[in-house]
Structure formats: structure tokens, C-alpha cells
Amino acid sequence: MSPPAGPATRSSWKTEPLPESRERLPYDRRFDAARHERLLRGLVPEQMEDKWFIFHEEGWLYFHRSWTGRCMYAVRLRAESDGGSAVDEAWVNRAPEQYANTDADYDTRLLAFLVDRLLLGGHEAQFPMPRTIAGTGRESAYVHHVVGHARANDDDGARRDDDSS
After folding, report:
1. Strand partners, 76
2. Domain boundaries, position 111
3. CA gap 85, 143 in Å, rounded
4. pLDDT band at residue 74, thresholds of 50, 70 and 90?
């Protein structure tokens, strides 16, 4: 597949705003200049199995479910003097009609996974399995529901499948 023409923008996909019903997450992270540039690219779904649309706008990273356009996470980045960035604040959707989870610890771990796997291309990133799913035999279906094939942009902007191992 060819790399995207440019970074993802709000107009690259359908979006809904983060609802007023939200919770602040304890997500503390610093990114060097190279990783910060990768964050700014975002991620535009290319096929049905791509479950997330992510874009950067005015200092914020927005994480939307690709099928519904619902904003699930918002992360404000603070620019650092070395060209990198640090997380200033992070929020999760808590509108019960849009998202049933209420476990902030799990949401923080899932957000970290989405950043590491989808935006930074960390193919070694481990999916955080919720306690309610672990050991039930539904793990694979749950991972697929949340991240599909977890397609990530590699350093050169080309797409790579999770199935490549």
C-alpha cells in the first residue's frame, strides 16, 4: 500500500466531539522529537479492519472509533524545547450510551497501547486484556473488536499488518 499523502486531519474521516461526560486519565508520557513527529501524522483507516481514526489538531491528539466516529480519547501535548512533547492531560469518553467501560486504569493502558502500536509502530506493544475478558476464551474476539488487525504506520509511512510475524 502507498503511504498516506499527508497527516490525518479532522476532515480525513467522520468525527463526533468528545462528550461532556468524560474522565481525566493518569497518562504521563514524554516523546522525543522523532516520536512526536510520528504522533502528528495520525492514522486514517484504510480498510474495515482498521478500528481507529487518529488525528492531531491544535495541540490535541483525538482518537475516534472508525465505524461510529465517536471520540474515545483526547490527549493534549505540550511542546518541549528539544522538539519533542509531553502529555499535558488525557481524557476518556464516559458517555454510557457510547462507551460502557468505567475502569480508568484499563483505559490508560489501552490508550498507551494505541499510541505505541498504532502511532509509534511498536509491534512489540502488548494489548491490555481487561480482567473481565481474560481467561474466558473470548480474548481473540475482544482484541479484534477493539483494534482489528492493529495496523500501524512504519517509519517510512508504509502500512504493516499485525499478522506479519
Report:
1. 60, 89
2. 10-164
3. 29
4. very high
* 4 located within any domain: no
**Cβ–Cβ < 8 Å for 149, 162:** yes
Phi, psi dihedral angles at 160 (to 5 degrees): -140, 135
pLDDT the model gives residue 124: 87
Contact 9, 55 (CB under 8 A): yes
The answer to whether residue 73 sits within a structural domain is: yes
> Residue 142: inside a domain, yes or no?
yes
Q: Using one digit for the tens of pLDDT, what is the confidence trace for 87-135?
A: 999 999 999 999 999 999 999 999 999 999 999 998 889 999 998 898 9
- Asked if pLDDT for residue 165 goes beyond 60, the answer is no
Amino acid identity of 115? Answer: V
The whole-angstrom separation of Cα 70 and Cα 16 is 5
Q: How far is residue 75 from each of residues 93, 134, 138, measured CA to CA in Å?
A: 12, 27, 30
For 122-126, the CB contacts below 8 A with 24+ separation are: 122/152, 123/152, 123/160, 123/162, 123/165
For residue 138, is it within any domain? yes
What is the tally of structural domains in the chain?
Answer: 1
